[in-house]
Every structure is written in C-alpha cells, then in structure tokens.
Amino acid sequence: DTEVTQTPKHLVMGMTNKKSLKCEQHMGHRAMYWYKQKAKKPPELMFVYSYEKLSINESVPSRFSPECPNSSLLNLHLHALQPEDSALYLCASSQSGTPDQPQHFGDGTRLSIL
Amino acid sequence: EDQVTQSPEALRLQEGESSSLNCSYTVSGLRGLFWYRQDPGKGPEFLFTLYSAGEEKEKERLKATLTKKESFLHITAPKPEDSATYLCAVRTNYGQNFVFGPGTRLSVLP
Predict the structure, then answer these.
(1) What is the DSSP letter of A53?
(2) How far apart are CA A11 and CA A27, in angstroms?
(3) Separation CA B31–CA B38 (nearest Å)
(4) Cα separation of B100 and B37, whole Å?
(5) Please, what are the averages of pLDDT over each run of 10 residues along chain B (110 residues)?
(6) Chain B nearest-CA residue for A43
(7) Looking at chain B from residue 13 to 52, which residues have their Cβ under 8 Å from any Cβ of chain A?
(8) Would you call B49 and A102 a contact, using CB atoms and an 8 Å cutoff?
(9) φ and ψ of B80, to 5 deg
(10) Measured between alpha carbons, how far is A4 from B109 in angstroms, rounded to an integer?
C-alpha cells in the first residue's frame, strides 16, 4: 500500500459531466503534484502545489482545475473533458518543493471519457 | 533543454540472468537522479535517489550507480517478481518538476 491515497480508483464520465479526483497524504509533505500518464509513456507533470500555493501549471487546459484545500489534500476538478483526456492520473507528494527530494506517488485514478 | 533517455526500451531475462538498465541524461545543474519501479495499473514506486557522480545505492537485488552522464540500474539474479517498468527521472536546479525518461520494460521469465 502506498502512503498517497487516491480516489476513486476508476472513473468513467461523459464529456458533459463534472467530477473530481481526490488525493490525500499524511506524511507531512508540503509539496503535491498532479501527473497524467498515457499507456506505455512516462508521467507528464500537470500541476505543482508548494505550501498550498499553485507554483507550476504546465499549460494544462482550463477543463482541468486543481485545488489544494489544505496541506494533506489535493483535488483535481474535471469539466467538459475530451476523449483524449482518458489516462491514468497520478498524484505525488514530496517533503518540500526542493529538487533533491523524491516524490512519492499514489496508485492513480484510471479515467475514461466516453 | 533537459533530456533523459533510457535503454533498452524492453528487456527479457531468464530468472537468475543478471543485467543492467541504462539512463542517460543531459541536464543543467543536476540536483538528483531518481529510480522508480512501476507495475501495470499502479503508480511509480520510489527505489533510489543518487546525488553525485560515484554514488551507489543498493536494495535487495538492485544496485544503482551514477556517473556525470548516466546512471545504471544493475539487477543481480532477477526473479519474475522483478518484472516491471523501470523509470528514471532527474531534477535540476532550475525546475520543480521531474524530467522522466521513457522507461525500460523488464520481463523476467521463470
């Protein structure tokens, strides 16, 4: 079991739906990340939160909206997604945002857009 | 531009047949090189961090080494449960994100 918990594990939604992905960690980490991973590809960074402030947004379409309610929780709000957004969405955390610390990943949410 | 490549793309080994995976990088200001293991349908599992050339880390059948241009993940006497995709990633002085390599898919046959 990982120490980063993501829910739900699987999500199927239509292109007009609104849904949210949730991520929780209780390791006291102060940096949290959202990644998108397509099949047989490495994870691609979407967003970085450092001390609950959005510090990196890698030119992600506005149909993805991140939120960090507190230092343990990270949400990704989804609206009007496209079929090409189907992927594994991974959450990660690290002790802080400094470059020398590893990120610890959850097992992801498998998202399918109909 | 920071770049990370991995070779081979895929590797099939017989159980007990030792081998090495390569991660080559071209970055400015390396702060850390990270190895992960990823099983199908799971998130990457952290294995090692290497910070400077000459450093080595070991864990069970795995040993990671680092030079100024590349890192190797040596697998000694692998078992079928070592089958996974192995990802390396680098972090630099200038960015908060990992730059991931494309991964090596390892299959260990009994």
Answers:
(1) E
(2) 26
(3) 23
(4) 12
(5) 92 98 91 95 95 95 96 98 97 77 97
(6) B100
(7) 31-32, 34, 36, 41-46, 49, 51
(8) yes
(9) -55, -30
(10) 31
